[in-house]
Amino acid sequence: MSTQTPTADLAQLTGTYVLDPSHTRIGFVARHAMVTKVRGAFNEFEGTVNFDGTNPAATAVTVTIKAASIDTRNAQRDEHLRSNDFLAMDEYPEITFVSTAFRQTGDDTFDLVGDLTVRGVTHPVTIPFTYEGSAADPFGNLRVGFEGAVTINRKDYGVTWNAALETGGVLVSDKVVLEFEISAIKQS
């Protein structure tokens, strides 16, 4: 297996990639009851990256997430998150991201800018990513890895349900951290 370092010549990576759902995590973290964090992920999604290593600004990314695939390892909580109180998945079955800009910020760092749509509400977000490297896998595929995270305010997307706590504060934080651990496979 040959591995390239994160500072590899980006021109070599030019091409179209698809997210590998078996090795990619699209997750989130929210504070619960003001004292702990709840982590979850979406298990069903697809995404395409058209990467231009000679002109990274021309790179285009699209991701579609099935809202019903939310998984926090608690069935009752997951059903509540799928309901109209949160994701309203019957009316809005998909969460989407479409890039509008891709900027190299360092040897192995990038800002991916795009439109995130949740519950039919779209806002621009900037997600800082770190390029983790590339490698030929045992099947002869070229894989690239990226990791990134961004904090959003769920209320900006119409996700406003909450419950006051007797001790003060609320049950669910407004701030949600979206986490991305991406493994993408180059298409021939």
SSE order: EEEEEEEHEEEEE
* Count of discrete alpha- or pi-helical segments spanning 4 or more residues: 1
Low-confidence parts, pLDDT < 50 over ≥5 residues? 1-7
Approximately how much helix is present in the residues?
A: under 10%
Structural class: mainly beta
Widest sheet, order of strands: 2-5-6-8-9-10-11-12
Q: What is the assigned CATH homologous superfamily?
A: Lipid/polyisoprenoid-binding, YceI-like
**Strand proportion:** over 45%
InterPro entries: Lipid/polyisoprenoid-bd_YceI, TTHA0802/YceI-like_sf
Family: Belongs to the UPF0312 family.
Protein name: YceI family protein
Domain Lipid/polyisoprenoid-binding YceI-like: 16-185
In words, what does this structure look like?
This protein is mainly beta. The protein has one domain (3-186): Beta Barrel (Lipocalin), CATH 2.40.128. Helix content is 4%, strand content 54%. The chain contains one helix and twelve strands; from the N terminus they run βββββββαβββββ. It has one helix spanning 75-82, and strands at residues 3-4, 15-19, 25-32, 36-42, 45-51, 60-66, 70-71, 94-104, 109-118, 121-136, 142-153, 172-186. The chain has an eight-stranded antiparallel beta barrel with strand order 2-5-6-8-9-10-11-12. Strand 3 (25-32) and strand 4 (36-42) form a beta hairpin. Belongs to the UPF0312 family. Pfam families: YceI (PF04264). InterPro entries: Lipid/polyisoprenoid-bd_YceI, TTHA0802/YceI-like_sf. This is YceI family protein. Residues 16-185 form the Lipid/polyisoprenoid-binding YceI-like domain.
